[in-house]
Every structure is written in structure tokens, then in C-alpha cells.
Amino acid sequence: MLFTKTKIEFFLLFPRMFSIIVIREKTSLTPCNVWGSLDQKEEKSMAKYEILYIIRPNIEEEAKNALVARFDSILTDNGATVVESKDWEKRRLAYEIQDFREGLYHIVNVEAEDAVALNEFDRLSKINADILRHMIVKLDA
């Protein structure tokens, strides 16, 4: 006999447990490839950043253009792509920075795979006396 009296009583007392067992027995999961094929290369996504820096207001126009070109080339030489680089405007500062009450704001939109270019920009802008302040912000995708 396939079912004994105790097994039948158990199934009658706990029908939900039996149905779960049956469903689990009939469910077949298809195997999935977790790692993917080995010949495919992973593409690194380019993260988007916005860099804002304040240039001292008494700088000559030629020197400002050279400064902007230099810092744009620092980004591109270290693997980043400069999407847009533009002057914002001359604005009054909330407080004095190095005895200046105004500053020339410049905005740069950048795409980079890693932070090498941004770290180099950060390091050199801290050293440069023409840049009063700078800020690097990672944009949401």
C-alpha cells in the first residue's frame, strides 16, 4: 500500500502543507547563466560631473582664457571628456575670499570613467592662485 493510515490522516489534517509540497515538486527552474559568456567585455559607464570654479576678478581676459584652456586640457589629458565649458558670469561673493568680494564663475560639464582626471584637477586647482574656490559634483544618471 502506497499510503499508510497515518500519512493520509496527516494530509487531511494539513492540506496546505501537502499542496506546497506538490507545487514544489512540479516546479522546474530553468538554469541561468550567472557569469555571462567569457568573451564579452564589460563596458564601463561614464559618470557625469559638473565642476564649478571661481576665478579671481582682476585677471586679464587672455590670462583667464589660458587658465580655462589649461584646466580643460588637464581633464582631457587624464581620460575625461569635456562636454561643455562655459563662463557663467561675474558674481558677488557671500563673503570675502582672499580680499575679493566678486569672482568670475566658470562651469565645466565632464564625463569620466574614473576619478583620475578629477583628482588631478582638484590637486592643481588648490595650488593655483587664480582659482579662489572650486567644487566638483557628481550628477545623477
Structure description:
With 141 residues, this protein is an alpha+beta fold. The chain has a domain at 47-138: Alpha-Beta Plaits, CATH 3.30.70. The protein contains four helices and four strands. It has helices at 5-13, 15-26, 61-77, 116-127; strands at residues 47-55, 81-97, 100-112, 131-138. It has a four-stranded antiparallel beta sheet with strand order 2-3-1-4. Helix 3 runs antiparallel to helix 4. The protein is elongated. 13% of the residues are buried.
Helix content: 25-40%
User: What's the number of helices?
Assistant: 4
Distance between the termini: 65 Å
Spatial shape: elongated
- What is the radius of gyration? 31 Å
| Biggest beta sheet attributes | 4 strands, antiparallel
Total number of strands: 4
**What is the name of the CATH superfamily of the domain at 47-138?**
Ribosomal protein S6/Translation elongation factor EF1B
- Broad structural category: alpha+beta
Query: Would you list the SSEs in sequence order as H and E?
Result: HHEHEEHE
CATH class of the domain at 47-138: Alpha Beta
In the predicted model, the low-confidence regions spanning at least 5 consecutive residues are 18-27
Give the neighbour order of strands across the main sheet.
Answer: 2-3-1-4
Strand content: 25-35%
Write down the overall mean pLDDT: 80
Tell me what the CATH architecture of the domain at 47-138 is.
2-Layer Sandwich
The CATH topology of the domain at 47-138 corresponds to Alpha-Beta Plaits
